[in-house]
Here is the input.
Amino acid sequence: MIRVGIYGATGYTGFELIKLLQCHPHVQISFATARSAAGKRLSDEFPTLIDLPIIAPEAADPATVDVAFCCLPHGASAPTVMQALAAGARVIDLSADFRLRDPADYERWYNAPHPAPEMLDQAVYGMPELYREHIRDARLVANPGCYPTSVILPLHPLARAGLLADPVVIVDSKSGVSGAGRSLSLKTHFGETHETFSAYNIGRKHRHIAEMDQETGARIIFSPHLLPVFRGILSTIYVTLKPGVELAAVRAAYDIFADEPFTHLLPDGRLPELRYVVNTNLCVIGIQPVDVDAGRYIIVAVEDNLLKGASGQALQNMNVMCGFDETMALT
Ligand SMILES: NC(=O)c1ccc[n+]([C@@H]2O[C@H](COP(=O)([O-])OP(=O)(O)OC[C@H]3O[C@@H](n4cnc5c(N)ncnc54)[C@H](OP(=O)(O)O)[C@@H]3O)[C@@H](O)[C@H]2O)c1
Here is the structure.
């Protein structure tokens, strides 16, 4: 049995993690933190199978756990991560604080100097499909962002196979509202999102561009959209491959995912939909040739932002780190 602690247990990713962990046969949740709900119980916030007191972050003792999950906003997460590491816990950080390898990139995209640059070379980007062997022994796993997961997984095979002719890749992503977290904000409340559809931060503005560029080697032009659903991301990716690359060769690049439990390529002619993946830890990918002579293809990928895009991938990472079956409590 391993003991885990959850910082930020009352947020969307924290609650999703609790729902998953309560079904894990080898996990005991030792503490759950939040500031505003401190003093209540988890069952006061959500109907959960397990019930725990919610404690203030300062009251949590990371020395009592094997793995700490930090489901906190970026900036707030790094000091907690450092404290948990110092106490001997292994850490899975769902925030962006340790995803970028270059502290200058963090400062540029997050408008503040990195709070712990000395830890960046020890943090492993937590995408098992790319870094499984490094994740196994990592003390600190930087869980990827939700949009980036839906872009890096479908682009990585093409970049790795050297098929991209143009490093500029246009990505058009649509996310459910839960991607913005549970805190109240004018942009994401029901009246502002229901029965409408909007783009925001388009071009080279969204912070997630930094990790997409870092992990794909491409230069991403990114148009995020707010979809009037609670969960799910669909990313449409416009790539220019080497002229004349046939569909069979493009598909062959995705053979690296053949044994992956959660990342799947659809058969020819099929495109993925959100309903295929919502409430699962899957990322499902479809390929559409547009002009093979010119190397133009469109790739479509879907995931649940709260699962493969956040807490599901975090649990997948924990399973890898602890030597459990990678799919445990995720299927
Ligand atoms: N939502 C997604 O789809 C998604 C996907 C991938 C990654 N992420 C990342 O995962 C992290 C958590 O996201 P979320 O959507 O779960 O956020 P959320 O719904 O806003 O929840 C944040 C949690 O952290 C606590 N918290 C907030 N500020 C804090 C602080 N300064 N110190 C201590 N605790 C604090 C909140 O409760 P109190 O305010 O009461 O303390 C709450 O429990 C973020 O870094 C986010 O970018 C989110």
